[in-house]
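Example 9 (inverse folding). The structure is encoded as follows.
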């Protein structure tokens, strides 16, 4: 049996970056700050995880999420490598998100007001949109200050 499944809830560290492949397939990349369950010396620690989405999920993510948006991600870990300019091998790790849940109202982060929906909603690749109404269940993560970001 093969199992590669990741579930994360965190806040975007910057606006998603939307691009298109030469064949016209949408791809969006962003970093998700996910709080750790423990504090170090009284301060909350976070992991900064690279996320990539594809196709309609990528377009919706870029259109509706912004820096600071609270999002739930379900996907898989993907690793890779490439040769850097100095000839050294660079290793990469990212989460390929197959499901992105927008966990806050659009007005919470001044996201575009496309269809007037004030509830967060879920966008899954190759699946219809559905509203998500129980946002209180996903509010353990506080606001991330710019000073806390590693970049």
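The amino acid assigned to each position is listed next.
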């Amino acid at each position: 049996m093969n199992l590669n499944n990741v579930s994360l809830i965190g806040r975007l560290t910057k606006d998603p970056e939307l691009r298109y492949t030469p064949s016209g397939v949408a791809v969006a990349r962003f970093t998700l700050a996910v709080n750790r369950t423990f504090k170090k010396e009284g301060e909350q620690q976070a992991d900064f995880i690279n996320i990539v989405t594809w196709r309609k999920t990528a377009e919706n993510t870029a259109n509706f999420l912004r820096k600071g948006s609270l999002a739930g991600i379900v996907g898989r870990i993907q690793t890779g490598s490439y040769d850097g300019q100095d000839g050294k091998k660079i290793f990469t790790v990212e989460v390929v998100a197959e499901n992105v849940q927008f966990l806050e109202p659009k007005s919470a982060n001044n996201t575009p007001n496309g269809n007037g929906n004030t509830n967060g909603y879920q966008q899954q690749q190759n699946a219809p949109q559905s509203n998500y109404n129980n946002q209180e269940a996903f509010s353990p993560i506080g606001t991330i200050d710019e000073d806390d970001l590693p970049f």
